[in-house]
Amino acid sequence: xxxxxxxxxxxxxxxxxxxxxxxxxxxxxELVKSETIQQVENAMSALGCLLEKGTIAxxxxxxxxxxxxxxxxxxxxxxxxxxxxVSAKAHGYRLLINDSPLDRSSIYSFINLLKQVHAAGxxxxxxxxxxxxxxxHSVVPLVQCSEYNEHADYPYVSIDDYSAxxxxxxxxxxxxxxxxxxxxxxxxxKYAVKRQEGFLDTLRKxxxxxxPDWIVSLPEVNYQMAYSAVCRLLNNEIRPNAFFVISDVFAxxxxxxxKRFDLRIPEDIIVVGFDNLDISIMxxxxxxxxxxxxxxxxxxxxxxLLDSINHPDMFPKSLILDTELIIRESSAKx
Amino acid sequence: xxxxxxxxxxxxxxxxxxxxxxxxxxxxxELVKSETIQQVENAMSALGCLLEKGTIAxxxxxxxxxxxxxxxxxxxxxxxxxxxxVSAKAHGYRLLINDSPLDRSSIYSFINLLKQVHAAGxxxxxxxxxxxxxxxHSVVPLVQCSEYNEHADYPYVSIDDYSAxxxxxxxxxxxxxxxxxxxxxxxxxKYAVKRQEGFLDTLRKxxxxxxPDWIVSLPEVNYQMAYSAVCRLLNNEIRPNAFFVISDVFAxxxxxxxKRFDLRIPEDIIVVGFDNLDISIMxxxxxxxxxxxxxxxxxxxxxxLLDSINHPDMFPKSLILDTELIIRESSAKx
Lengths: 334, 334
Known about the structure:
six-stranded parallel β-sheet; 434 Repressor (Amino-terminal Domain); LacI/GalR-like_sensor (chains A, B); LacI family transcriptional regulator (chains A, B); transcription (chains A, B); Rossmann fold; transcription regulation (chains A, B); alpha/beta; homodimer
């Protein structure tokens, strides 16, 4: 092996410490215990990597974290990524963003990527099957963020989608609405399944019947698609008087569609969104929405991943963060 | 050198072909001329890389492109990234997104990253100094996208910010407005400098004076910051009757601030934004804006980069894409 091919990951493995520790020894040795410095230096000389100027430069590669998103187009992910970036930087890691469905046809190439860049860990924002999680975990530590697989035993940071949807549905019913439609995302996501369950269970408990054609699942979080779907529902004699939608982008589409049909919000139709995106205060009326702690989701996921990287023997504890309903003009005259 | 450390980049260099060609030989040899296959296979055996099953798997790493953004928070970048992703995927490359200012303190770590992951090329959405462009170009081919450095001789895909701002300013004047404010981004970006020049030159030609305190440069594209800045301008006896702003996010902030001061849009104040983001049709009124071909900017930048990678001897031609003014409710009763 040539000297200039030795990476921080190689040294870390040899020394039995984390890549971040190797980085600290190389750049901020004042922060590291003397035994650890000795351990790392021993590993470096065992690998034929001397502490000469050029060699250190070659070795001070930042350890990499890959964050994978299913689709970058959904602005909800931006704040999550922001949180993960802040945590990664604070710990001397670099975070790179990859966009892949992580399905059967793309998983092998993703695994190759992790090996190719010697990734130290992975944050997954997709819903990933157990089989594919096992494959990824055989290469690097992983943390699921926002989406997670209930049938696999890997750590995650997420919200309680069922209870968040229950609160939203109960609130809608309390506004005296009984003709309630739901615009959902793709049912391949945990959030879509759980929010729909919470929504339907609540209406069932309140003896409110739901028309099956008023439960719409769209293939992506897309404004134009949602606008078409809502127009189709409003273009009937019997139309909903409330919408529960799983993104504020969809709620903005409901607002525009209502205007097209000369329906007033909140007088004729109320709408409750999800995520508390910036656009929820840009529309007119502003959007009542379920706030997700997006930044914190990403930040905590990265912190959990760093725990996994630095303490491979400890199983990090998953985390469920709180949501809250924010009442704005789209559901109440305030 | 151990067999399992040989990358596509190594083989490509040895064979004198592009990494994409090596990928095609390994995975879709039916698409490749027989001489080229021979060339690649010779290179592989010269590197001690035999065509056994495990070896091929190790070698079929996708060549990587790094796309660097100055701040992911600006949704304008999402469509640009989307375009670059589509082009990269179509050519068998993988695109990873990195978030770095690429300033003096971060450039060395960026250069290390490029070496560490054996990047095949780089797309830069930042404004980068000539010195730092030279450093990056000494490692990999690069293309500048949206932002570019006029004093450096590297290829770019962008728009004509001066002329786009000129058209917007001429339109505002044609709406009989003479008290015009501008909310700009950070002057470290080429777009901010050029748009301000176009704006000021137009008003000068029309003999319209501009109050210096009505030209505001904000440190980032942020809704809350813009809202505060606009409220400050509207909270005076003499207030603007038009706003030219360099992002639809800022235009949305003008709309909300106007409401707070009981000012009607477009009757009392008109506003012209930039980018034609999705939010420009979500607000009420909808936003008159300068459309940027965002997807095409990213797509063309990646195509240009692939030209540079595949034909290192040819200097790729830079490209200026068209913008257009889209008139909506925020400037005219339509």
